[in-house]
Amino acid sequence: MSSPTTAAGRHFLFLVTSARRKGNSEHLARHAAAVLPDGCKQTWLNLADLPLPAFDDLRHASTEAWTPAIEGPARTLLSATLEATDLVMITPVYWYSLPAAAKLYLDHWSAWLRAPGWDFKTRMAGKTLWGISVYSDTDPRLAGPLRDSLQFTAEYMKMRWGGLLLGQGNRPGDVLGDHASIVAAGQFFLGPPAV
Length: 195
Known about the structure:
Elements: E1 11-16, H1 24-33, E2 41-46, H2 73-83, E3 86-90, H3 100-112, H4 120-124, E4 128-135, H5 144-156, E5 160-168, H6 179-185
Parallel strand pairs: 1-2, 1-3, 3-4, 4-5
Helix pairs in contact: 1-6
């Protein structure tokens, strides 16, 4: 895999997880993506278009090993996740944490870790996980649980943590008036991942 600061050969999966289409977090993400070099492939998926079933955790349901079936939207998302070098979670702050669709997607990782033939954890190691989010409050610290959830996920999966691009806005389009976050978006993917 290329180094995290080398553009050529990188494939960014932008995963929109908001309950609102074309919301503030997606606006901010598109500003960040606009400055990616031509050598970077971009794939955009919206979880609203790929509804996952409720996650049924059967890891300890019997003495037999759990072999989850990966089909439909789950198979599409698993394949796209593994094909990317960089996974960008576009996740507005909902009740101080991730939107339900984002949390459900991550819950399904528990099944993907056990799905035979995919080698999910091994293949995720070394990829970079990024977060792009918008909060509607006045205190950016309230996005802390969302950031921590993504960063801890990256650490558990032995991924690089790219960092969280955070904007402020409430009504659709408000983030476009947050000058500081728009400027930050133009530099977000160009530096090395966060430590």
